[in-house]
Amino acid sequence: MNAPATSPSVKGWCPGAHRPMLSGDGLVVRVRPFRAELSADQARGLCDLAERFGNGTLDLTSRANLQIRGVAEADHPALLAELEALGLIDQDPAVEGHRNILLDPNWATGDLTDRLYDALLSALPSLPDMPEKMGFALDTCRGGYLRDGSADFRFEISDDGGLILRADGCDAGRPVTEAAAIDALKDMAEWFVSTGGRDAGRMARHLKTVSLPAEWQTTPPRSAATDVSPGAAPNGTVLGAAFGKIDTTALRDLLNDTGAEQMRLMLGRMFWLRGGRAPAPSQHFVFEGGDPILKAHACPGAPFCPQATVETRSLATWLAAQTDHVLHVSGCSKGCALPRACAVTLVGRDGAFDLVKNGAPWDIPSQTGLAPDTISLKDL
């Protein structure tokens, strides 16, 4: 049997603003914009900070957050102060570390999703202490858009239009009213902790060994919505960023040239420029949904991450044009760029790659020790 990839150092938490993570090029500081939205001025300000304190790029993460990389430890307090001045972080580090909230980007001020966001934000300090990797999805607009997003507690819409709370890993959820939604969430969170969920780390993993109460599994969510792709959108344009990497100079120019008013962050490493003019084509962003790079996922890899022994993104770019499958090139078996199963996953180990088909980076590979220059279409 083939051996799995060497186990990397798993932190059990994600880098935040108050609690950054040390990588090969300095600190990684994650910014979770409230409601996954930045005003044009906030976006320009974040570009300025990435250039002043980081490496001049922003990373758009799989959870629709932004990261500044390459921050010196001595500069971290000054960066925090600037982020707070922009209104992009919580003053309470404990709240900021648990504010992993996905929203359907179609939310509107005062709608159900917006109201649930406010209620959830207020409730975060009173929830049981859970692993910081855990998160929440407010998939309550048209429904089904966030199905592939990383979340453990999911507010969704049923086929009859009702609100449900579903535990990730279950096919069905629990009908709730808006007024009782947060109390139901607290019940589920307390159940998770009391049944040993902290040891599992995530809801779906916990439910592989422990059964959720049957009355919390009665109503399935609405079918998944059609995927959003780059192109014209209501009141703006959706653009993609290859591997989530955004050049700050290009983003600043984009905001200035279009006159966009807001920037909403989306799953799939895309963002929605709202208001203003349609952007002119640019090599820095993905403008068409058929671009194969959108199906390719890759972390920064070596030398930027100490866990990685392989370079990732040039290989992912080359292979993306050769396959119609979702492709993941991971520097190690943590799989940060896509922490779930997909059609083809290449996992770096000791300077070579292991191949996992229809699995996650930590699964047993079908082939091991593939040299980067020998991997081809036949392996996919």
UniProtKB/TrEMBL annotation:
The keyword Transcription regulation does not apply. Pfam families: NIR_SIR_ferr. Keywords: 4Fe-4S, Heme, Iron, Iron-sulfur, Metal-binding, Oxidoreductase. Residues 20-85 form the Nitrite/Sulfite reductase ferredoxin-like domain. GO terms for molecular function: 4 iron, 4 sulfur cluster binding; metal ion binding; oxidoreductase activity. It comes from the Bacteria. InterPro entries: NIR_SIR_4Fe-4S, NiRdtase/SiRdtase_haem-b_fer, Nit/Sulf_reduc_fer-like_dom_sf, NO2/SO3_Rdtase_4Fe4S_sf. SUPFAM superfamilies: Nitrite and sulphite reductase 4Fe-4S domain-like, Nitrite/Sulfite reductase N-terminal domain-like. The keyword Acyltransferase does not apply. This is Precorrin-3B synthase. It comes from Thalassococcus halodurans.
